[in-house]
Amino acid sequence: MSSSKKIRVLMAKPGLDGHDRGVKIVARALRDAGMEVIYTGLRQTPEMVVRAAIDEGVHCIGLSILSGAHNALFPKIMELLKAEGADDILVTGGGIIPEDDIPDLKKAGISEIFGPGTPLDDIVEYIKANVKL
Amino acid sequence: MSVAELIEGVLNQKRRYLARLISLIENEDIRALEALSQLYKHTGKGHIIGVTGPPGSGKSSLVTKLTAEFRKRSKTIGIVCVDPSSPFTGGALLGDRIRMQEHSLDDEVYVRSMGTRGHLGGLARATSDAVRAIDAFGKDIIFVETVGTGQSEVEVIDVAHTVIVTDVPGSGDDIQAIKAGIMEIADIFVVNKSDLAGADKKVTEINAMLDIDPRERAWRPPVVLTNARTGDGIPELVDNILAHLEHLKESGLLQKKGLQRSRDELHELMKYKLTKELSQKLQGKPEYEKAIKMIAKRKQDPYTVAEQLIAEFLFSETR
Amino acid sequence: MGDNKTLPAAVKRWDENTVAKTIGRFPERQETFLTISGLPVNRLYTPLDTKDLDYEKDLGFPGEYPFTRNIQPTGYRGRLWTMRQYSGFATAKESNERFQFLLDQGQTGLSVAFDLPTQIGYDSDHPLALGEVGKVGVAIDSLADMEVLFDGIPLDKVSTSMTINSDAVVLLAMYIAVAEKQGVPMDKLRGTIQGDILKEYVARGTYIFPLGPSMRLITDTFKFCSEKMPLWNTISISGYHIRESGSTSVQEVAFTLANGIAYVQAAIDVGLNVDVFASRLSFFFGSHSDFLEEICKFRAARRLWARIMRERFKAKKDSSCRMRFHTQTAGCTLTAQQPDNNIVRVTLQALQAVLGGTQSLHTNSRDEALSLPTEESVQIALRTQQIIGFESGVGDTVDPLAGSYYIESLTNEIENKAMEYIQKIDEMGGAPAAIEKGYIQREIHDAAYSFQKSIDSNERIVVGVNKFQVDEEHKFDYLRVNPESERKQIEQLETLRKTRNDGKVQTALKDLRQGAEGDTNLVPLILEAVKVYATLGEICGVLRDVFGEYKAADL
Known about the structure:
The complex is a heterotrimer. Chain A is an alpha/beta fold. Chain A has a single domain, classed as Cobalamin-binding domain (Rossmann fold, 3-Layer(aba) Sandwich), CATH 3.40.50. In chain A, 40% of the residues lie in helices and 18% in strands. Chain A has helices at 21-32, 46-55, 70-83, 102-107, 120-130, and strands at residues 8-12, 36-39, 60-65, 90-95, 112-114. The two termini of chain A are 17 Å apart. The model of chain A has no long low-confidence stretch (mean pLDDT 92). A seven-stranded parallel β-sheet of chain B has the order 4-2-5-1-6-7-8, sandwiched between helices. Helix content of chain B is 46%, strand content 13%. Chain B folds into three domains: 1-41, no CATH class; 43-251, P-loop containing nucleotide triphosphate hydrolases (Rossmann fold); 273-314, no CATH class. By secondary structure, chain C is of the alpha/beta class. In chain C, helix 10 (249-269) packs across helix 15. The mean pLDDT of chain C is 93. Classes of the chains: A alpha/beta, B alpha/beta, C alpha/beta. Chain A binds chain C through residues 15-21, 24-25, 27-29, 39, 41-43, 45, 67-73, 76, 96, 98-100, 115-117, 119-121, and chain C through 116-117, 119-120, 122, 127-132, 135-136, 200, 203-207, 244-246, 332, 334-337, 369-372, 445, 448-449, 452-453, 455-456, 462, 465-466, 474, 478, 481, 483, 552, 555.
């Protein structure tokens, strides 16, 4: 059988904020770049995000938060992924994330943070270059 | 992850391993075949329920509610949802999970979204094998939700024991299922969104269609009115699903379907394998390229050449 | 407006001689020019572009139907717009301090932001509230928090705007109860609850219940307020969030007014007289970055709403046809890059809103693309409005741009295009049906995606983002919400649950459940429940149980 690997990405909005313009635009851009994008909708707990990522066999998780809850939720998600032995999944974040918070988030295992104004192509290229297929 | 690890993980109900196996199946990885062949003896236990219907007929919501009802009856659930892949980029937006959130943390429910990756017929090429993997994993009930583009999504009949065809009131006067060419594959009809005007009328219309169905059938598809929002009609639908399975068993159809499916599958696999082997052998061969040119120039005909090439390359041991 | 017979020939001549000559030597910057919403912009507008305009019918006079030129006869000559900064932080106590500060600074109305758990009807100790308590606004779990929030603020003197939607009725009930304790009867209360649930499904995302029950809560509120709270604005029909989620200006007008139509129809359907409640409706728009288009948008929206109320709903009173609106400068235009540039953006956007005739205005702070704004940034934003109001002179005559060929022509175009959308939505069965089908969401998403593409491909320039970038480090002081406040809030909630009279709470909740299962007006029942300190989460929990929860439409 031939190999026809496709990058699968989970786009998730943990927390309660309903601003999904960004996450939906990125989802569409990733699809247009040939990826399979699973979108789970709003109000995801860290447990739900991790469960979806594992069930769907994704290579990458894109998290988006605009409410400021990232410091509580991003590390929690990384913790759960590790507990499941699924920390080989590439995890990126976006939304409104103050620069001061980024070092700690990266330390927790978030590999990149894409702030407002990031060109879509940058995100696509980053994922292509960094996922483990 | 080795094949042995995969198999052990799946049999021990580790969902990560199941997810990995399905990814390998989708990617047509050789390990998937090895794993599936060893898992085969553990399959054949789950009740596979296909859900098809026109766009907007509430398939995902229906599956969600059915899952809740089956969970009440202590059944474990697997769900495969298929969405279309873009023919241009190969990408896909898989959004069915949005409506299935109420089960997202239930350990006994496994949900997998799948892009068609160019396959027609309402399913992905990998769907059937993915269902088999979930079956081996041990889920009691496995739902297969078709793409829902409204076009001849009949392939689900080859995968499922019980096929549910959904429709909604008010979608024109026509029965959408007829237009979509899926009227004939239904074991159960569901008129979803029973709170909308025209729901009863739709039920009557479908029943009228069934009245004039010329085929003699021991099982007449029931028409069930549901509301996936409130859950009305869902217990009745589950009862009907179980009754259908009972009917399949009692009438011996289950066994017959199983035989037919094994026959079809074996045939498909052999065809696939042969085609693949033949094209590998022919790839880049000068005779092959030359023959193509001759056919295009009308110097030779494709019928004779096909016979010759098959005889020469597939059945000759010397090549 | 113009009837110059020789003008067409003159325009042609100008085009063929003067323009052609110049373009030969100095080509224009672009082949075609489009507004930010994609409407074509001509090189020049002349009386020919407004020749069908009937001054008295289409423009009229300020304070008179169809209100194109403003709803106040004297515009800002009598009183400037209300400078209202949306705010609210962490705990009720901190927010109260911020309110006192803003009132001292000369702000003339209060605006309360609630945190997300409050907006979605969860108590602060709900699992989904983790990390969200006090983050984007104040956390309110019960009347006790509301009492602290308005401590020392005379509710008969201020007008309060509350950004709350799916559970607006609960917060309104708490406000009434606090006022009662201050000795202020509810018929003296002035303010607004946003209460616009339809746009939550479309754009903002803080929905709870399915469409049907949500509309019921709204009509219950309409009814209650029309009898008991004559000064209260029962809904603020919001285009702002629709625009923020990526719509065009035409879509902003169309979808907002389509939602407005749905509310008016729902109210009429439950037996309210349109002329009794219509004057309590208010609107809320964004002010985006296309200067002239935005001014036209405000004017077009005003005229279109007036016509809808008169022609479609047969409103008799002129006051029923007056569109009053609040404006906020567009948060989505703020850049994280070179954040001080945002001060300039906000200035232009604020000026548009004033030239468009807004009744109240929120100006964003420069640092909002990075985090919650600091006090210094909030002050600059407020000063921006004060400079426009007190120094620029633009408020000294009413609707100063009227009669500009371009302004009038674009006002017409936006009105017409919005009307086409509204007709399409009508054909689908109105805004709620179009939302359930996901139509409105998809239209907005498509617009948002192509807008982002146009920035990525440098077709559109955003200064500091895709042109004129610099290497920079942000040296801002971020306003941080103390993580302790989440814990404190939860502690207070636990104390409240232990100290209140639980029997009374259970009775009130039982009554509420019965009411919700039937069709009685729920506002009095909710008022009873908040008065005995039932929590927001408990009240919404009962309603969730009875009504179910909304599930989002597809991507």
